[in-house]
Specification:
71% of the residues lie in helices and 1% in strands. It is mostly helical and 695 residues long. Among the domains are: 78 residues, no CATH class; 288 residues, Serine Threonine Protein Phosphatase 5, Tetratricopeptide repeat (Alpha Horseshoe), CATH 1.25.40. Strands 1-2 form a two-stranded antiparallel ribbon. Strands 3-4 form a two-stranded antiparallel sheet. A hairpin with a 2-residue loop joins strand 1 and strand 2. It holds the Pfam family GLE1. It comes from Myotis davidii (David's myotis). Its main location: cytoplasm. It is found in: Cytoplasm; Nucleus, Nuclear pore complex.
Length: 695
């Protein structure tokens, strides 16, 4: 049958094709769906299909019969179009002279055999090529439909993209509108807030203006009061200056009269041999002139003389008048004696009796017929030994904490600073405010020395933080006590008593602190020993001045007034310490450095030659602070000592005191004379009474 023959021809063509000649292995069947996927996948034409359509089909049609050729042409024309058949990529290779299938050989025999053998194979596979070409055409049509569908899909996507772009643009516009609205709202809120702040600021400004007007009114009132006070002070100053000028003119008049009286005193007994009494009167007259000159010089530097200066000048003038009266009386007596002697000589000459003149009497042995013994300059050996022991103890204490002060460790330095503050700050806080405050300061110092922690600068401090802490605190504490006497007591004499009572209480509980206080006191004020350092050969003048207690800075020695002020402060502190005891102590034991040491100091200072300006100042300070306590303790012996000072020691001080340094001597003399007249030493100003400790 023709259909069956065509089927066989088709199968023969497939078997003769390249794929039909492939060998398939049985184990591919085990791969399962992988092989089936290749079978059910979209068929694809071979790359040689074009070549087959262009070259094989024409040769096949030539070998077919006319009926088969027409049938083939009809089938071909119905299924395929030449325009749709792609050209084979190996067309040039099929009929090229250099093709491997038809190589050009010299004989050409081999090529002919192969061509003859290939021609039946091509004839047999024409049906397969037709099928493959149809498949290729279907595939091309399917691809064109896919391309058309792809084009439509792309256009659809482009429409969607344009729609999305327009939607995004609209959303961006809405976003910009919302953002602008938000900015506008924020601007409105900010504007409202600024307007509100402006209104509040205006209200505050009005309030400040009102307050300023009120304060201006108060300040104007205060200025008016201050102006009235200034006018009052100006008026008072004017009156004071007028009174001062009156006193100054009076002082100049007193000086003029005093100088005139002194000239008269000098003219008494002139050109004659002067007796001792007359010489003493003239010396005293010169001293009074120097005193008045010193007062005038001081007042010219400080302003106008005070009523006290005028009173001193008037008393000096009165004393000068008395001196002149005494000198004239001496001169009258001398003249009377000379007249009597002349009368006797005349009578003797008349009687012509020779007389043997007596030898001149022995030189005068001083007032009262007793020759005064020279006082010593050096301190007693026992006192000097005691002074050296205290200084050696101070040096040993410094060596004991040398490691603490010379350490470079920051932690050790911090401990040193904390201990120094804990030791010195409480001493600086001592005042006469209340006894309870004084007790708190004493307890804090006592706890620190006892090893207990105390609060200082917001931190807990204890001497147990360093092995050398106790020695360091004791030394710095004693140094601070003496420094307070040198500075605070020197400026405010009443401050000596609260500082002294705390120092005395600490001394009683911690004796080493007391020894260090004495060592610092003797070093800064050697007159509290009493000790007058001697100038040694080879010693620098500045070192000697420091030994005397002067402060020397940049080769400049401090002024005498400042020096006396510091010595006075330390002596007042010492005089307060020896008479005071801590009121909350046991009092079962004696004072560690009581009034007996004050009596010893007074006796030794009177056994030594006085120093100009220094001895009178320190005696006055000592007696003013401690005189009342010594009077109660020693009674009659004390008054004998006061009489000795007046009768024997005052002339010695006066003899070495220049006219410009008589102020301290006159102050001491007036104080002692007043006390001797009243038979009582007044209680010092600032003395701590029992009511102070109840506050």
């Amino acid at each position: 049958m023709p259909s069956e023959s065509r089927c066989w021809e088709t199968l023969q063509a497939l078997r003769s094709s390249d794929k039909g000649r492939l060998c398939y292995h049985r184990d591919w069947l085990l791969r399962g769906e992988d092989v089936l996927e290749e079978c059910v996948s979209t068929p694809q034409l071979s790359s040689y299909a074009g070549w087959v359509v262009d070259h094989v089909l024409p040769h096949t049609q030539e070998n077919l019969s006319p009926s088969e050729a027409s049938t083939s042409s009809r089938s071909t024309s119905g299924l395929d179009q030449p325009s749709f058949v792609p050209k084979s990529p190996i067309r040039s290779l099929a009929f090229s002279p250099a093709s491997p299938r038809t190589p050009a050989t010299p004989g050409g025999t081999k090529g002919k055999r192969e061509s003859q053998h290939a021609e039946p194979m091509l004839l047999q596979s024409s049906r397969g090529i037709k099928v493959e070409g149809c498949i290729r055409m279907y595939e091309l049509v399917h691809r064109m439909k896919g391309a058309e569908g792809l084009r439509l899909w792309q256009e659809e996507q482009e429409r969607k993209v344009r729609a999305l772009s327009e939607m995004a643009s609209e959303q961006l516009k809405r976003f910009d509108e919302r953002k602008e609205l938000k900015h506008h709202k924020e601007f409105q809120d900010l504007r409202e807030m600024m307007e509100k702040s402006s209104r509040e600021a205006l209200g505050q400004q009005e309030k400040l203006k009102a307050e300023h007007r009120h304060r201006a009114k108060i300040l104007n009132l205060k200025l008016w009061e201050a102006e009235q006070q200034r006018l009052k002070q100006v008026e008072q100053e004017r009156l004071r200056r007028e009174e001062g000028q009156v006193r100054l003119r009076s002082l100049y008049a007193l000086q003029e009269e005093l100088l005139h009286l002194n000239q008269q005193l000098d003219s008494v007994g002139q050109h004659r041999d002067l007796k001792v009494d007359l010489l003493a009167l003239r010396s005293r007259g010169n001293q009074l002139c120097g005193l008045i000159s010193g007062i005038i010089r001081t007042t010219s530097e400080n302003g106008f003389p005070t009523a006290e200066d005028q009173a001193v000048a008037e008393s000096a003038l009165q004393e000068m008048r008395d001196l002149l009266t005494d000198a004239r009386a001496c001169e009258d007596k001398r003249r009377q004696d000379e007249e009597e002697a002349q009368v006797k000589r005349q009578e003797a000459q008349m009687q012509q009796k020779p007389e043997v003149r007596k030898e001149c009497p022995a030189p005068s042995q001083g007032p009262g017929g007793k020759r005064s013994e020279d006082l010593q300059v050096k301190v007693q050996d026992s006192t000097m030994q005691w002074y050296q022991q205290l200084q050696e103890a101070s040096r040993q204490c410094v060596l004991a904490f040398e490691g603490l002060t010379s350490s470079k460790d920051s932690q050790v330095k911090k401990i040193k600073m904390d201990l120094q503050k804990a030791a010195t700050i409480p001493v600086s806080q001592i005042s006469t405010i209340a006894g309870s405050k004084l007790k708190e300061i004493f307890d804090k110092i006592h706890n620190l020395l006892s090893g207990k922690p105390v609060q200082s600068g917001g931190r807990s401090v204890s001497v147990t933080l360093n092995p050398q802490g106790l020695d360091f605190v004791q030394y710095k504490l004693a140094e601070k006590f003496v420094k307070q006497g040198e500075e605070e007591v020197a400026s405010h004499h009443e401050a000596a008593f609260p500082i002294a009572v705390v120092a005395s209480g600490i001394w009683e509980l911690h004796p080493r602190v007391g020894d260090l206080i004495l060592a610092h006191l003797h070093k800064n004020c050697p007159y509290s020993v009493p000790f007058y350092p001697a100038f040694r050969e080879g010693m620098a003048l500045e070192d000697y001045q420091r030994m005397l207690g002067y402060q020397v800075k940049d080769s400049k020695v401090e002024q005498q007034d400042n020096f006396l002020k510091r010595m006075s402060g330390m002596m007042r502190l010492y005089a307060a310490i020896i008479q005071l005891r801590w009121p909350y102590g046991t009092r079962q034991e004696a004072h560690p450095h009581g009034l007996n040491h004050g009596w010893r100091w007074l006796a030794q200072i009177l056994n030594m030659e006085p120093l100009s300006d220094v001895t009178a100042t320190l005696l006055f300070d000592f007696l003013e602070v401690c005189g009342n306590a010594l009077m109660k303790q020693y009674q009659a012996q004390f008054w004998k000592m006061m009489l000795l000072i007046k009768e024997d020691y005052f002339p010695r001080i006066e003899a070495i005191t220049s006219s410009g340094q008589m102020g301290s001597f006159i102050r001491l003399k007036q104080f002692l004379e007043k006390c001797l007249q009243r038979k009582e030493i007044p209680v010092p100003k600032g003395f701590l009474t029992s009511s102070f400790w109840r506050s």
